[in-house]
Amino acid sequence: MKKTFYITTPIYYPSGKFHIGSAYTTCLCDSIRRYKDLEGYETRFLTGTDEHGQKIEESALANNKSPKEHVDYMASLAKDLWKELKITNDDFIRTTEKRHVDVVQEVFEKLLASDDIYLGEYTGNYCVSCESYFTPTQLVDGDKCPDCGSVTKVLKEETYFLRLSKYSDRLLDFIDKNPEFIVPESKKNEVVSFIKSGLLDLSVSRTAFSWGIKVKSNPKHVIYVWIDALTNYITALGYGSDNEDLYQKFWTGGDEVIHVVGKDILRFHAIYWPIMLMALDIPINFRLFAHGWYLMKDGKMSKSKGNVIYPEQLVERYGLDAFRYYIVREIQYGNDGVFTPEDYIGRVNTDLVNDYGNLVSRSISMVNKYFGGTVTLKEHNHEYKVFEEDLRNVAKETFLEYKKNMDEFKVPNAIQNISALVRRTNKLIDDTFPWNLAKDEALKDVLESVMYHLLESIRIITVLYRPFLIETPAKVFEFLGVEENFQGFKNIEFGSKKSYSVVKKPSHLFPRLDLEKESVEIKKLMNVGKPIVEEPKFEAILPEIEFEDFTKLDIRVGKIIECKKHNDAKKLLVSKIDTGDKIRNIVSGIAEFYEPEDLIGKLVQVVVNLKPMKLRGELSEGMVLCGENSKKELFVVEASDELSPGDKIS
Ligand SMILES: [Zn+2]
After folding, report:
1. Mind listing the pLDDT tens digit for each residue in 424-483?
2. Contact between residue 168 and residue 195 where contact means Cβ atoms under 8 Å apart
3. Do 164 and 256 fall into the same domain?
4. Separation of 520 CA from ligand 1 center, angstroms?
5. How many angstroms is it from 132 CA to the middle of ligand 1?
6. What is the CATH number of the domain that holds 615?
7. Ligand 1 center to residue 616 CA distance, Å?
8. Around ion ligand 1, which residues have CB less than 5 A away?
9. Does 551 reside within a domain?
10. Global pTM?
């Protein structure tokens, strides 16, 4: 029976278009998965989106959308991107799906029943954007969030707690007995010292907002997003459903499970998740691989800095394989990597154009020129034999090193192993001067042997590239006439394939890039500073409603009397609006499109009977109607000058 391998990305938080950071994690997982496939494992690969929480609720409202509409759109962007990058995920889980929601509710009830979760009261400093409480010692500058720097708020609420403290010794013991549980080791050490500093019970429910999974036995509480999100790794396998086949195959009865996570979310995965599993009596048979980030020269990628680059932009200009190769090659194991246009172009030119692409085209053209396209393994005793022997040894060593690195998730190192073999193969040409051998009929066998060695080495290199290059290997195998049974690890040994017949005219694998010109092109893309504008899509008309439904809306003319920016939400404006009956406080998500003073005095249309709600601490007693254009810009819908505050609109 095949060994099993289950790999997951974190489920992504759908706050906008994905830049190369999220694409990095996903491509990395996809490469590891493709490698395990070559190794003969039965593999499963999961990704998805984390769709609950206060931030989602607020950004949906700020875009005048319902949270569901908002996450539907975001999830579709993610799915489209993974398709374009030829990601091979078997499943895509969304935390708003029923298969997930039902099980998370059951998990919570189970933990309540076992007293691992209990009801209590919490007072603390809360960061809205991180959706986390922090203890006074964790705060920065008195009241600021240590993770994102926002000003925290003191909140007091009834909340459920998960007993982390009860399990901290067991967790430390587990980590001690499973030294490979968290890699790299530096990251493991951070986790261990965090646990040793003392785990407080974790607040695992919220009552301040409603966009989340409700506690079944007490629905005014919404389950904390991390409890919800982490559970995806097993709900997607059918845990707790009518069909647990995948769960039994890949989790309880599986051989290897790996969660690949960014270092920023390691703590949740290394502490909360194993403790949840212990409390649920589920085996902790996963491992964690924490990777670094892609940084830009001026720090983290952000739209406001204008240093964002999107995967689609690079793929469109330079092809899928160049992008997929670069993205997993450049960040060194355990570190962060810096994206620069020069490095991108340089890496593609050096490794793919000059070394690999050139080796393939030179070799094919020599085999055609000297042997009419067909060569066979030949014995000879010429002194050049040592170079061939050396190449065979390097190929053998390369495969062993490559496997060792891939098994430890040291992907860039494994790719460097291949590059070294490419260079050694190119060197065989420099060592043996084929054009001189060709002049002497007596050395024909020697020349044929050299040609054979080049092609056999290219075959091996191409097999090793299969986890990272998605489209190129099939082309190279076709150029060389490599049958399917010589395209995997089974026959990777040098000399397995005895003869070759190559094509006459191979197409170009990788076009050479002009370093200076292309660096400027990438910088132009980055300095747009805004996400790619989506093709304007006509938004589908909603299902029919009864006239009665419409009459439930009370829309009135309102006059904006005051307007200011929201204290701690960049996208929001807070207005005082006269709607005839009274002066209302109304929050609108239009700060990107209006200066507050532009709005004062305007007659607008206001839905006045919406249930009041708090948006980032500001009461909102109604909604100003806005129209959205194809560029996703919002404009308030004004009312005619003939109308006055309080006039009814229908
Ligand atoms: Zn924060």
Report:
1. 999 999 999 999 999 999 999 999 999 999 999 999 999 999 999 999 999 999 999 999
2. yes
3. yes
4. 35
5. 7
6. 2.40.50.140
7. 13
8. 127, 129-130, 145, 147-148, 150
9. yes
10. 0.80
